[in-house]
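#struct-pred

JT: dropping the chains for the assembly here, can someone run the whole complex?
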Amino acid sequence: MIRFIRPFRGFWRTIKFIHRKYKKPKIEMTPFVKASLLALRLYVLVLIGLMVLKFILTVK
Amino acid sequence: MNLLEKIFYRLRKYSKALRMFALVAGPGIIVMVADNDAGGITTYTTTGAQYGNHLLWFLILLGPVAYLVQEMTVRLGAVTKRGHAEAIFDSFGSFWGWFSLFDLVLTDWLTMITEFIGMTAAMSIFGIPAWMTVIACWILMGSMIMTGSYWTWEKIVLVISIGNLIYIPAAFVVHPSVPDIIKNSVIPNLPPGGLTNDLFFLLMANIGTTIAPWMLFFQQSSVVDKGLQEKDIKFGQWDTAIGSFLTVIVAVLLIIVCGKLLFGQPIDSAAQAARMIMPMNSYVGTIIAIGLFDAGFLGAICISLASSWAFGEVFGWAHSLNHKIKEAPWFYAYYFFDLCLAGTVVLIPKAPLVLITLFVQVIATTLLPPALVFLILLLNDKKTMGALVNTRLQNFLNISIVVVIVVLSTMYGLSTLFPNLL
Amino acid sequence: MHNYSFDNSMDPGEILNLTEIVRAQVNVNGEEIGKIEDLLIVDKDKFAEVTHIVVSRPFGRPQLVVPWEKVKSFNKKQVVLDIEQVEGFINSTRGSAIFLKDFVLDKKVLDSKDRELAVVYDVGLTLTNGKLLVTNVDIGKSGLLRRMKLGWLAKLLSKSVSEENGDRVPWIYIEPLPENIGSFRGDVKLKVIKEQLSDLHPVDLADVLEEMSEEDRIAIFRELDTESASDTLEELDPKAQRDLIASLDKERAAQLINEMTPGQAADLLSVLPSWEAKVIVELIDDKEKATKITDILEKQDEKVIDFSITGYLSFPPDMTVEKAREQFAEAARKKAAITYIYVIDRDTKLLGIVDSKSLLLSEGKARLKDIMTERVVTLSPSATLKKASELFARYLFRALPVTARDGKIVGILLYRDVIALRHRYVE
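RK: done, full complex below.
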């Protein structure tokens, strides 16, 4: 069992490593960049929200 | 200098430019031609069959749009010498990095499936069973990247790209009405009936097939793999411009052919179009079928490479076509994995293929805005781009494009999810 | 250090054309690995030295950049590299290296006033003591014809070999290549203006040559045509003169000396071992000049006639000033002394002297006989150098005419031949 999991554990470690490596955005945080990223977050949230809504409506 | 000397000087300069162009050209032409993939061909045939020549102007307009967007990846790649995935991780942090990578992988998988659908459908016209097509494609696509040389790979793919131009003779065979074509190419107009849900859907599909996230990732990574330098950017731009010209030519000619032969008939795939045209004009029918296969083939190679490169960049695997399989095992492994996954899905009996095709388009279009916004932000980062940041004109054009696409795709997303809303 | 074993079949002084070199195949361990694509150079102002060769390989394999030290043998057809592993030389970083073919060939050539003169049709290189030096650029018509695959026409048109090489501009006359030079940017700029191109300053050239290492100096010197080589040779210091003459074959040395005044020739030859000087003098075409030179060398005579030259300007007395001015430039070409115009009659009798300043300032309609100085200080052929130097010291003339007893001019004596030379004949 452990032998089976081991490669995945390595994979998980890699993911964590990448996550740490790119923790901090390196781009210069000008107001324009900040505003754009915020808008993007909203866009994605609304998109997910809509899909969830659609799912709920469909299930009903 | 006398005239002869001046002529000599000019000629040498041009021939040198041409030689250097020949060295640099490749990524732009390949990505643009591959952009007319199986899904694209289907979209164009549908557009032609439903609206005839009416939407030609829109397709022509998409040419410069595709150029403007893709050109940014050339600069980004040549300056930063790193692929798009790595650039996003590095600049926007791991949240947006994972988001983009996930976005790319998902759309790539789904698009790969449509490529295999296209290829198997095209070959079935010639009586070849699906499993045979899939296995043949696996062998061909597998063997062509194993040369361990970007150069060889690129030359092979360029030859396949030329196959995409097979639609050009088809347009001459059907004798379309030239004045009508010119009129519809130059004057933007809506087809009779106005802006219906169907038309909007088709316009979005056309945008989605011309600008796609995988294209950004693919071109930037191949620019890096090819080793383009800042001094090569001008040639890379020409490369992209010529590619976008070719992609528009193919799209326009295909619409003209289908508009002439299939006008008013309901079509939902290019393979179906080829089948219907076959009795009318067997040449054109064959051309469309071969072209569809070629498009799917080219698309599949590029798309799976795009995600292989992206994974390689992020996970730190060796990721270059200049590596042998032994030197970059994960890079090639993912490429094959992508191929096998998509091919297998197509072979599953009663897989919901039409649904998948539709789903691909929705996902791809709604996930396009983040990719474009990232691109613009990256190209405005003085720290990395130096003197090659977007100019004011480039920013104006590109931001306009992004805003239009964001608005359209939001509307599109809404109308697909809630058809009764509009 | 590496031992060079260059092809003995090749004359080390031969000019290699860049356009010929770039087709050469490159061999490693007896196997062809590619072709020469370009040469990397370091521009050292006075010449440029090839530091690396760029090798292009088939099937899109990356180019190699191999340091010149690794070149085992080099000629137009084949280059053999002494390297073990090809992979170590794959180098994509370009930095500030100058690619000779990419950056210099086919560039516009501007003169120092930014007028477009021609195009760099070719670049001449010379192999000297195991170094490959860029020594000149070809900007001539024959270069253009050769590049247009009309080399046979160029040969037909140029009557002699020297003319074929006449349009090559030594690298010393090229400004340091611009910083921003690239594949499509930057022009090659000359230090001289168009008009001077046919007459590059020997004095400058000599100064530059003196600063160079011996081998470079010899390489550059070989490039010069007879006239400027001769002029340059006069201006060098004795040590450099001796080295250069020793490096030339005797016929060439005699050719160069033939171009000089007897005084200068003797001066130059006096720095050589006497047996060598003798051999060279015997090879001189102009027998009269040879005799003069021998006379001076052997100190049998110190008469001014041996030092006199005939390269002076002479016009008839009835010529108008206007006409004289028109003809001045043409007549002055190739003359050693142009400060004075000697006015002579049909029997070459010296009537007077017009200096070039008064020629310029006088009215156009006037005749030369109206403006000339009739009281001329002259020397007789049998006058001694001592006498001549006294006259020069007193009058500060640049040149003195030597006239026979009947007043006919037999030559002129240059100030520099008497005073400026280092000879030991004036006490």
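JT: nice. The two ends of chain C are 54 Å apart (CA to CA). The first strand of chain C starts at residue 15 and ends at 17.
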